[in-house]
Task: structure prediction
Amino acid sequence: MHDQPVEIRWHGRGGQGAITAAKIFAQAAFESGFPGVVMAPSFGTERRGAPVEVSLKISKTNINDLCPIRNPDVVVVLDDSILAEINVTAGMKPGGILVINTPKGGAVYTGNHFRLATADVTHLAEQAGLKRGIVNTGIIGALAKALPIVPLAKLLEAIEVEFEGKKAAENAAAARMTHAHTTTE
Result:
């Protein structure tokens, strides 16, 4: 387990569920022994497809810093097309982890000072029975593989609670399948 706080910055588009994914990860982290959890979304005009950024800080101790993340340990990208619009790795700590939903694998990003985790979350989520573009629960599985500080079982529980009555089994399957098919470099 990590003794230092972990700062995770999420990048997605409106409607993809970046805020919900961060919320689920935060809840599971809290239930897994991280009493310090702070989440803050940031977005411009609220519309489907607009860039969305979420800051999530988790710690074994209380967190007093409520500011958005400037130097993340981990960056999660729900849509690889954002890479052409936003410098998602801005301020990222050397040796940090970059998690990307992409069908292109490691070829989508060529930086050399980050660890990279990729999965075709969009395809896997569809295979799990979700509508095209619903990638928030699948990306949680990729993050769990790249940053194994919250047990996958605890994340699956949190997903099932969040989506009770709304395709809970399919959302949990998307996370489980993505976890199994995430490539780390």
